[in-house]
């Protein structure tokens, strides 16, 4: 029997060709492959943005309800580039434990909250960026003289923030048998460290630097990971992702990134990188 090949009428073939041309020109929406029929933050009039509320220098909620920090400033800049002024941004505290869910159910449109791009998270989140690459380090109580690197965390009580990746980096990736002590946020970790309930808080150097300014404790200065801070979007919003990547590039090119890094971490002693990070690609 002869195999029959479906013959497409000429007008269908013509439309397909037109779509190829249009998509090459960046107007996918004309072919129903983007734009209005696919949820994207790209053309929104206002934005709800998820940030942290208890991470000094990154995302802190003040008594008056306003948020401030590096992540808040980065998010404000990106929103501006997307055509959404500060007055049309709604901020929402988005702790590590709720980030994926908040994006999936639409509680927030995007997340800028020390949110590392990881392979596991990429399955359920579209990440723009990274907008910065931090490195995991460890903070210990001021009098501690025995923890010098990540291996010294063996048998020690470390903070395990729900939904955060940092304790997994130590226990699961590095296979160091530290004792995880659950906490809801990094702010809670710092209180637990001060109360003697923990030996160490191991997480991103930017987070530790923010806390170190106002809490007792010392950073051991033994970084051991790359934490690529991404802008989290609902899975599949490739148009929004590409627009945000353009905004991040502009943020570095026009000097804003360097200014914001200096503003929030200029006195921290951290070596700050002021060149645009290598993007992961939108997926
Ligand atoms: N960047 C790490 C993460 O995304 C730790 C900080 C956090 O949980 O916000 O898991």
Automatic annotation (TrEMBL):
PROSITE patterns referenced in this protein's UniProt entry, alphabetically: PROKAR_LIPOPROTEIN (PS51257)
User: What name does this protein carry?
Assistant: Glutamate ABC transporter substrate-binding protein
Q: Solute-binding protein family 3/N-terminal domain: from which residue to which, for each copy?
A: 46-268
InterPro entries assigned: Bact_solute-bind_prot3, Solute-binding_3/MltF_N
The family note in this entry says:
Belongs to the bacterial solute-binding protein 3 family.
- Where does the UniProt annotation place the signal sequence? 1-24
DNA repair in keyword set:
no
Query: Any idea which UniProt keywords this protein has?
Result: Signal, Transport
Claim: tRNA processing is one of the keywords in the record: no
Superkingdom as given in the UniProt entry = Bacteria
Looking up Pfam families in the UniProt record yields: SBP_bac_3
The organism of origin for this protein: Actinomadura violacea
